[in-house]
Write a structure and sequence with these properties.
The chain is mainly beta. Helices cover about 5% and strands about 25% of the residues. It has one helix at about 70-75; strands at about 10-15, 35, 45-50, 55-60, 65-70. The chain starts with 10 loop residues before the first strand and ends with a helix.
Length: about 80
């Protein structure tokens, strides 16, 4: 069974063009994000993770935006 969970997510506009995307930074601690290409058919869509504060982001390079994904406390309603 799947339950629905509603959480607010902040949309972050990326301050560069797609070609200049080598340095995407965490909005929480400003460290560089590790980027993970999960589907080669969608090269502009990535998961970004911050090694410093453990934040995760869904990145849309073509749209020039990313969203901070919910963490455990958001998902557990804490």
């Amino acid at each position: 069974m799947m339950d629905s969970v509603f959480v607010a997510m902040d949309l972050v506009r990326l301050p560069f063009q797609v070609e200049e995307s080598s340095d995407i930074r965490c909005e929480k601690c400003f460290e560089a994000l590790e980027r993970h290409q999960l589907d080669i058919a969608l090269p502009g869509r990535m998961l970004g993770t911050c090694e410093s504060c453990k934040a995760w982001y869904l990145i849309d390079l073509e749209g020039g935006v990313m969203v901070l994904l919910p963490d455990e406390s958001d998902l557990r309603g804490i």
